[in-house]
Request: fold
Amino acid sequence: MVRSEQKPLEEILGYLEGSKKVFLLGCDGCAQASGTGGWPQLKEMKEKLEQNGKEVTGMMVVDFLCQKALVASHLKPVEDQVMASDAVLVMTCGIGVQASAAMIKKPVIPGCNTVPLGGTRGEWRGSERCLECGDCVLYWTGGICPLTACSKGLLNGACGGASNGKCEVDRNKDCGWERIYQRLKEIGQLERLKKFIPPKAYNKMRPKGEILVSSLWALEQKD
Amino acid sequence: MGLREAFASGKFVVTAEVGPLKGTDTTEIKEVAHLLKGKVDGTNVTDQQSAVMRLGSMVTCYLLKQEGLDPILQVTCRDRNRLAIQSDLLSAYVLGIRNVLAITGDFPSLGDHPDAKAVYDLDSVQLVWTINRMNQGYDIAGNELQGKTDFFIGAVVTPITDTEAAMELQLIKMEKKIEAGARFFQTQAVYDVDAFAKFMKRAEKFGVPVLAGIIPLKSVGMARYMNKNVAGVFVPDHLIEEMQKAEKPAQKGLEIAARLIRDVKDLCQGVHIMAIGWERKVPEILELAGLA
Ligand code: SF4
Ligand code: SF4
Reply:
């Protein structure tokens, strides 16, 4: 799930300056679950915009807005309303906004901020995170990722800023390196901490061009 | 005699820390340099300490050098990527700076520009390794340098921690820093001599000199503040009481600092005095400690 938060109304109204007619777009996936862009939030937003002198030409909730083919098919029946608008306000994560912007020939306005979850998670909700660094070091760290568990992403041990096991950057978070130490101790592998990990090849974190081309989207284009 | 020679001579080494101010006024730095000249073996200059934006460490080191001190350039991993760090090291060397202290660096959110992007392209062990590599004539990528550096490399260690995991992590990292090329250590502030002695028992085997950190207490409030907010600093209750009972707490703070120096004298190879705005008092502390 991608988590989002609604932007302050003033910011949204700022983006809509000069736009009278607005179409509202939401998503029944993550945005609905985040409480930012499901039907109830769209209805609330409609009222607020009308109180501020805007005209809402229509509303649509798509599941899921990140699927561009669905964006196109859901909007087909309301195309006139969309095209009669000055702007489309999208109340979802940044992916939904980008997918909409790619499909709609109208100015698309982000209504939400996507908030960090600390890296990629599995499909099942859990605390483990991966930054997709392209060169996994988990062997050395007992299966706890130092790039996500340590706030500074240190590779060769703790910074010394922890206090009672809590991280210097966020006292509500356990120090990743103290966790790594405990884990390695449990499995009798503390020796691994002595391994020097050289400067990381951060260019491996840049995705290759072909990865950014979704294969599903390529199929959708074919019909 | 510079810092490297002081260590080689086997004397009890004394270093002091200078924190540049925010702005271009360098009057105080020059005054402090004057006071410290001939009294310390090396002078650290902090690198935007506590993630607060200030005048740079390199230029301040250069000014100290001109005043006849042997500066120690503190370099953190917080603000610069590997290109900037290596380039700065070359520049510092050209300016005559010969000692470097490698540090991770406090996270930006703790300082006065909390919105800044944190870098940490290298960590402190990798930074020590990098400096050592440059001393051998190569950059991180393996390219040969036209004119290599010859830095005396230092690193830091926190000798007293609140968890055993943190202590073990400190010792393992200390060992890694030594293997990467660290030749001396400066520690976080020490107030508990017994705890420090325990640490030295475990660190002795590394055979690398350790300078115990000394921060003179200015007030009871400062002691409490550090206990609450500064990781790795633990001021014991009996010292806080001593400060409370003192007629002149500030003077008491200097006396305690001097006493701590005398107490650690047989445990380690020197002291590093971090006066935090009280640099002018360093000569007096040294006198009280019988080191002047
Ligand atoms: S080390 Fe790299 S690949 Fe492995 S979990 Fe962490 S970010 Fe992911
Ligand atoms: S306190 Fe621990 S988790 Fe936080 S930055 Fe330092 S080493 Fe990383």
Remarks:
- Residues 140-198 of chain A form one domain.
- The mean pLDDT of chain A is 94.
- The beta strands of chain A are 4-6, 21-27, 55-62, 87-90, 108-110, 112-114.
